[in-house]
Design brief:
It is built from 10 helices and 5 strands. With 286 residues, the protein is of the alpha+beta class. The chain starts with a helix and ends in an 11-residue tail after the last helix.
Length: 286
């Protein structure tokens, strides 16, 4: 599901860009040889036919969308980098670097219960002393395995990508849904990784002990208290009944085909327009 949501957002962007290119190529004809030739042909088309306005509108829309996406990405990237630098300074002043259950962590001397991870070379897994006092050894290992799975899987990149698209294009329902679903799915993926490493019971008890412990209200972190702990516990202790493996594969294949269909159609139309010979036959009086 995580891969499908991420693929759907990428397919949407690539399909829109491809459709714009196909539209321009159809209007400009086979004279498109490159960027410069396309620009020249575009100006000529604007003068000699009534369809030229569509090229200009498409080009402006594509350019505006690309600029908006780039500007939003730069702005959010600078804000994230600034927050991580500030957070690292606070860790250096109020936390200790420790080796806990064979994993390097930042140990914060606080009575609050919390555990989260911060991406980047200066980040890592952060856990409070209050959380360690509330957890047993196996539960602490489950929490560390959960946060380690976030870092190894680079889940912050997937979450950041979905949120970036939603911030840049908030009127697109797909991006709005992805920004809501992807953060939940990365928690599920990290839970599954922790269960494979430590077991279901320690993770479930750890989620109960740290429920609502998302004290770091920053979108730059992935916390053990993220998503809904109740739903995550239910998912582990009561998996769906009648969930056969072959049904899951069939459903996944069908959804994958639906997600890839727009991109396949647009790319196929593009290749057909390029590979098939252009026919401009004069009509015969007979």
């Amino acid at each position: 599901m995580l891969a499908l949501w991420t693929s759907a957002t990428v397919v949407w962007l690539v399909s829109c860009a491809t459709l714009a290119a196909v539209f321009a190529a159809e209007l400009l004809g086979p004279s498109v040889k490159g960027v410069l030739a396309a620009c020249l042909s575009m100006l000529q088309a604007l003068e000699r036919n009534n369809a030229g306005w569509g090229i200009g509108v498409s080009a402006l829309l594509v350019l505006a969308s690309a600029v908006r996406l780039l500007w939003t990405g730069v702005r959010r990237g600078r804000a994230g980098a600034s927050w991580r630098r500030s957070h690292h300074r606070s860790l250096l002043s109020g936390a200790q670097r420790r080796l806990l259950h064979g994993r390097p962590v930042w140990l914060v001397d606080s009575t609050e219960r919390g555990a989260y991870c911060v991406p980047g070379a200066q980040g890592g897994v952060v856990i409070t002393r209050g959380a360690l006092e509330a957890l047993s050894g196996s539960q602490a290992r489950a929490v560390l395995a959960h946060e380690g799975a976030h870092l190894r899987g680079r889940h912050h990149v997937l979450v950041g990508w979905a949120r970036l698209l939603n911030a840049a294009f908030p009127w697109v329902p797909l991006f709005r849904a992805a920004a809501s679903e992807v953060p939940v799915l990365v928690e599920w993926a990290a839970d599954d990784s922790a269960v494979r490493e430590v077991g279901t019971r320690p993770l479930v008890y750890a989620l109960g002990a740290l429920a609502g412990a998302d004290q770091v209200r920053s979108r730059q972190t992935l916390s053990i208290g993220g998503a809904c702990p109740v739903d995550r516990v239910r998912r582990q202790v009561a998996p769906p009944e009648g969930c056969r493996l072959w049904r899951g594969w069939v459903r996944t294949a069908l959804v994958t085909a639906l997600v890839a269909a727009p991109l396949v159609l647009t790319v196929s139309s593009t290749l057909a327009g390029v590979l098939l010979p252009h026919c401009d036959c004069a009509s015969s009086p007979y």
